[in-house]
Amino acid sequence: IIPMLLKIDLGSLRQVGSHWRGIAATVGINWLVKPFSMALLGWLFIGWLFRPYLPAAQIDSYIAGLILLAAAPCTAMVFVWSNLVEGEPHFTLSQVALNDLIMVVAFAPLVGLLLGLSAITVPWDTLILSVVLYIVVPVIVAQLWRAILLRSGGPGALSRTLERLAPVSLSALLLTLVLLFGLQGEQIVRQPTVIALLAVPILIQVYFNAGLAYWLNRKLGVEWCVAGPSALIGASNFFELAVAAAIALFGFQSGAALATVVGVLVEVPVMLSVVHIVRRSRGWYERGAGVHH
């Protein structure tokens, strides 16, 4: 998580006002719509429609994993998605920086509320510890490290460090997934249907939130180069945090951990499909009345 947060320049928060419509739409989707829509889809599909086809003892745990997955927006891959849709880079930077600050204070109450509404016991001490370990400490370490690098060697030193750290972040995530699959492998092989069923609410919430953010930006007269990254940030999930929190709260062999892993598996292909839709729909978007250029 730390190498990803090292990319974030909290100084870019000063630019929030210059793209306030896009920022307002994205913040609304990320924090007021996405977590609740995922909880609703989890209850509908996992708790009701698919219940007969899933192990009864794990139903609540699966829903908890889905809630954790959607409780915070992505902070790293969104730069890739934004680049692919020719997004306005200053908007993307300021939006991600703002989301990181909101995440520090909102993640624990949001997860606690949604787990509580789902009648899932909330281990508050572990949840608070997870926020400290996986959000607060990484944000502080990354920002201090960033400041030291910029002061001692300028932007070049930061770029070189980010290049060297890129494989570390990916390797750490892959190692976590290998451990999860190692511990859950038997269950996955025995019940591949579970993976497919867990993917359904995840896919629906990504397309729903991306579409809603894109449409909302168009209604607000936001230019396309801001609406594209807004839709992608609005639909994204911070799966590294979700995996870490699921393991901390419910254990390696829990249904929650498995649900977050399914989120990791579908994230890249589904987000690439959203990128494709955003690019193909540019003409339609820009024909919308009142778009500010």
Description:
With 293 residues, the chain is mostly helical. The chain has a single domain, classed as Na+/H+ antiporter like fold, CATH 1.20.1530. The chain is globular and about 50 Å long. It is built from eleven helices and no strands. It starts with a helix and ends in a 7-residue tail after the last helix.
Share of helix among residues?
over 70%
Poorly predicted ranges (pLDDT <50, ≥5 residues)? none
End-to-end Cα distance: 36 Å
Q: Mean pLDDT score, rounded? A: 91
Short note summarizing the structure:
The chain has a single domain (about 1-285), classed as Na+/H+ antiporter like fold (Up-down Bundle), CATH 1.20.1530.
Features of this protein?
single chain; 293 residues; mainly alpha; Na+/H+ antiporter like fold; 0% strand
Reconstruct the topology from this structure:
Layout: H1 2-6, H2 20-49, H3 59-70, H4 77-84, H5 89-117, H6 124-190, H7 192-219, H8 224-235, H9 239-250, H10 255-280, H11 282-286
